[in-house]
Amino acid sequence: MSTSIARHAIKEVTIIGGGLMGSGIAQVTATAGMKVNLVDMNEDILKKSGSSIQKSLERVAKKKFSDNPEGGKQFIDDITGRISFSCNPEEAVQSSGLVIEAIVENLEVKQKLFSALDKVAPKETLFTSNTSSIPIKDIAVSTQRLDRFGGLHFFNPVPMMKLLEVIRIPETTDETFNSLLEYGAAVGKTTVNCKDTPGFIVNRLLVPYMAEAVRMLERGDASAKDIDIAMKLGAGYPMGPFELADYVGLDTMKFILEGWSKNYPDVEIFKQSEMMNKLVAEGRLGRKSGKGFYDY
Ligand code: NAI
């Protein structure tokens, strides 16, 4: 190990938000041997985060230790033993080298959190957000540590998905960025580097692609089913754009397009879709509500 890696190695991580993403990030971070403080608003939510991590690890252990249940139990206990739960973010960050924020997708709420943490966290602690659609810089300006701020964008489900987008704002130092890349490698992800642009790499391409598929449907060019079949069999995609939109959630898609079309009114491919807005208003949110473009 080079001295620079040894100097940056992150031993303890505070993850704020114990929902879908935060629980997964906590799991992979603890699996990599780091200590984790998982923070959320109240004990009940944290209990749910704990049990979702436990269940997910049981699935991993079942495969990994299929002929050694004792080893599997030990594997789970070792990992969960490294995770502490807290409702007090200011206290949790005190000995952490890295903060990963995965709370509600709302700029003001994220700014408020980081502004408070900036005042109490150790000077060298790196701050990151897992935001999908808010510019990292807009969140970072709530702190005095823009040089130690970046984005770590994970994918759902975190333990399964191999990619981690690592985002830098103009002020992010090479030292900070390299530490974030090292953290990504430590948690077993393939990292890609990206500037602080809307949707980073994956969502920048996927969201307009799904929105254009909806526009095709609105124009009556083809049916949702035929567009999905075409992209699966003609482009080799594992899911068609409507299946993917239902998986992501039409409310999430609508929310992302709303933000982008407001910030970039001249970009045609960021325009909102009337059909998608109507489906959301009718409660057709995709798989999670049992119906979206398709019924489940
Ligand atoms: P979620 O709703 O499952 O979890 C958010 C959690 O944050 C909740 O448990 C909530 O109680 C907690 N929370 C809210 N405000 C808080 C605060 N001030 N302090 C502490 N905890 C707070 O949301 P999810 O899906 O995990 O998303 C979290 C972030 O990750 C968002 O920024 C989202 O854009 C991003 N993201 C989501 C992906 C997805 O597929 N769901 C993929 C990649 C990024």
TrEMBL record:
Q: Where does CoA bind?
A: S56, K63, S132
Any one biological process term the GO annotation gives: fatty acid beta-oxidation
Main localization (coarse): mitochondrion
Swiss-Prot/TrEMBL site (Important for catalytic activity) positions: H153
UniProt keyword list: Fatty acid metabolism, Lipid metabolism, Mitochondrion, NAD, Oxidoreductase
Pathway it works in: Lipid metabolism; fatty acid beta-oxidation
Respond yes or no to whether keyword Oxidoreductase is given for this record. yes
Q: Name one GO molecular function term.
A: NAD+ binding
Gene Ontology cellular-component terms listed: mitochondrial matrix
Q: What is this protein called?
A: 3-hydroxyacyl-CoA dehydrogenase
Q: Which organism is it from?
A: Bugula neritina (Brown bryozoan)
